[in-house]
Amino acid sequence: MKAAVLNQIPGDLEIEDISVDKPGPNEVLVQVVNAGLCHSDLHFMDAHWKHPLPAVMGHESAGVVQAVGRDVSYVSPGDNVITCLSIFCGSCANCLTGRPNICSNLAAVARRPDEKPRLSKPDGQPVDQFARLGGFAEEMLVHQNGVVAIRPEMPLDRAALIGCGVTTGLGAVFKTARIEPGSTVAVFGAGGIGLSAVQGARIAGAGRIISVDVTDEKLEVARRLGATDTVNGDEVDAVAAIKEMTGGGVDYAFECIGLKSTCEQAWAASKLGGTTVIVGMMPYGEKIEIPGYEVFMMEKRLQGSMMGSNSFRVDMPRFVDMYLDGRLMLDEMISAHITLEQINDGYEQMRRRVGTRTVVDFA
Ligand SMILES: [Zn+2]
Ligand SMILES: [Zn+2]
What we know:
- Strand 18, helix 11 (343-351) and strand 19 (357-361) form a beta-alpha-beta unit.
- The mean pLDDT is 97.
- Strands 4, 6, 7, 10, 11, 18 and 19 form a seven-stranded mixed sheet that branches. Strands 2-1-5-9-8-3 form a six-stranded mixed sheet, with no helix packed on it.
- Helix 4 packs across helix 5 and helix 7 (238-246) runs parallel beside helix 8 (260-269).
- The protein contains eleven helices and 19 strands.
- The chain folds into two domains: 2-149 and 330-361, Medium-chain alcohol dehydrogenases, catalytic domain (Quinone Oxidoreductase, Chain A, domain 1); 168-306, NAD(P)-binding Rossmann-like Domain (Rossmann fold, 3-Layer(aba) Sandwich), CATH 3.40.50.720.
- It is of the alpha/beta class.
- The structure holds zinc ion (ZN) (2 copies).
- Residues 88-89, 92, 94-95, 103-105 line the site of one zinc ion (ZN).
């Protein structure tokens, strides 16, 4: 099967023919129909993070179950599924206390080193799967705890977005921060995650929703999706603008880019007693600096959010319902459809901050 492989860091993706093993007892083979381009992959291609190589990249996919292992009862061939990188073991302390998104026993959902690899090159060289998924491929062989079945009427290109960016943004608002109706919200970044956080704030009944970005076209999309106000951080001091709009800062600030500077701005834009949620993926080893006295004296809170604190088997079908009943706007978030062969162009557009979400269509 065809897949987009990262062979060196830094490096572009190369379209190669990759062999897929048969499903093991707990594995599911998915025929991929669509895959979204998420910024996280770019961190590895651009050498901000390391990963075992070679690797099939991609982690925001939806498709149809082709085959299942003998111990899989959750899905059957023909089911439509979304994959999620928050693969859970189901038995560690975090999984058992409602936090499967930070499962601490990921070895349980991978093949053992002495087993045949799931993917390999024609010469037998093992190929890693990015985020244990490897979604830029015609087929994905994943642990059954990495898929969720969805309603068949859900279009799979829009379902793919729920696989990472949408769940991360909505979940940061609904599940990590659990914002109150009427509360004020600032969202830094109007890419796939930021636009989803804006929508989460709208759906959860936030009061003022301020979207911050440096691209006017993205801010325009944010307005259509629910932002009540927009701030172009290239043109004005975003923190000062937010403080002025809200009379001192927001109840909740969400950082959805992954930059030190915007993390610190989000913190500064949250009010006395406010909460800052760090959602964006920062370059590995990056540190953020916040004034120590504000932490205790102002009772400000800094909270991390990994993949929207998801329990994705519960959350994603709800997000599908929200799309199908019209509350979650996904059509507006897709700015381009491309083929797998065009994937490097898609990432080049992302580097140049063009478009909101690009989706790969597999024929
Ligand atoms: Zn992602
Ligand atoms: Zn676990």
